[in-house]
């Protein structure tokens, strides 16, 4: 308080004790017993808080009430029309001191107030008059910064909640869209995603700046919401509760849930507003962002290791966004860099190989074809001393009857191969295969450089281009010649007809007129194209033995005879089924006089064989041919409705019910793992 103000206060206080006769009461001074501030001749007090005020003056016992006026006037002027609000009750001490307690709301809080008193006149009437204290003269009502009331305050409260929601949602939504994700959307997104990513990326590139700006704006808005809540509800615990609930639900949870789901859409639609907030908070946010950039470094976006990227693809596959085959190929390619040749190679003991001394006769050639491999390692003396590779294409012009040594073919074509250590990665071996020099590599065990042993002692397996591609695709590639579907588990291929799983057919000299080449063709045809000799009823090994026996017969055509020999006559029972191997027959149906020519690989009498299979789906464990034939009875025969005439020399197989039952029985025993010893 300044010196001259202090003198005025003392003057007003001392005037109380001046002995004069006053006709009316006069307030010469007042004081507030609470937090207040003095500004010249005005005392300031806070709105919405109880204020205890003491008045000093003369004849105060005649004052029965007090009030305030917005318009100060001279002492004793009428105040009845100028005052506002309710009158204040007073307490007189009878010693020139009077006390009152009041509180003014912030929505009715004038900046300048003067004092009015209600006094008892000599005639007993009451009147309101203006008081004019010496010091201080006036009161001033102060708010906490907001002097908003009524509907406007609630409107502002709702607006601030929406701003809090927007800042909170944008903070999560924009920061969720890392730079790498936006770049991916720019290149691989839909047209709308590309457009939105183009607009968001320049802003998101300044990650720390956008973080500081939006967080700062969100904090400021939340503080305003708390102050408005305190103003609207009152400075109580309920104000804190409602402000917290409003910010939590409408300013945090709801907007973050929406923006997390539709982050790109929300961020792109609010780019102008976001830039405005950036410029508005730039003086404070920019220095903070520079500090964060220095400490944390550049924001590279969310990146993944190979393992994490593979797992990401798998999870997308589980959700149906990527096909299973695509998942296998992508994850297989990603795993190539840390998988080694040793994991996928075929062990050397399981490799089909040929000796360099082998001869390419019929038996060897058929064995090569039966195994179904395109490239065959050729060893010298020891299986671990591989010298060359034989390609099946090299056998195209080789006649088995010439019996050419394998070494001669290998020296002519000079097929190459590469050698790799077992620790070589699939990526490296794939690069070597792609160069086209060879698609087969020999795998050697890793050993120290000081190991002087020969490489032949360390050969552990082979690996092919197909093996690497299978690992990329994560499944086995099975072509028409493959016997195994997995070179690790040696799982055999499940085929409708095992026409490639042929046992070597030896050209036994048993009187058979069937050449080895014809045997192969016949065996494959019977297995693949007939039911009676298919895998269900006949085993390949038994059929081979059948072909090796003297079951083949030949009928010669004689042009000198008027009628060629007949194999079947219409209406005449026959006990034989015939399978033609060479030559041709004329088949005639007497009823219709239709004729056609039947050539090689035609089966007659299949009805009789079907009768056997229908009667005996499974044969008894004990072999008793007499009982079997007795059960068959007339079904062991069939009556053709056609005639056959031999027009050329015919070579054929003749099968009776007895022979077919024997084939069935032996096949059943082999398929059951039991070889018959006694018949």
UniProtKB/TrEMBL annotation:
Source species of the chain: Schistocephalus solidus (Tapeworm)
Gene Ontology MF: a single term: transmembrane transporter activity
Membrane spanning stretches: 12-33, 154-177, 209-229, 235-255, 276-296
Highest taxon of the lineage: Eukaryota
A family per Pfam: CNBH_CNNM2_C
Any one GO BP annotation for this protein: positive regulation of gonad development
Membrane topology recorded in Swiss-Prot or TrEMBL: Multi-pass membrane protein
Name the record gives this protein: Metal transporter CNNM4
Cellular compartments per GO CC: plasma membrane
Upper classification of the organism: Eukaryota, Metazoa, Spiralia, Lophotrochozoa, Platyhelminthes
Protein keywords: CBS domain, Membrane, Repeat, Transmembrane, Transmembrane helix
Family: Belongs to the ACDP family.
Subcellular location: Membrane
Xref: CDD domains: CBS_pair_CorC_HlyC_assoc
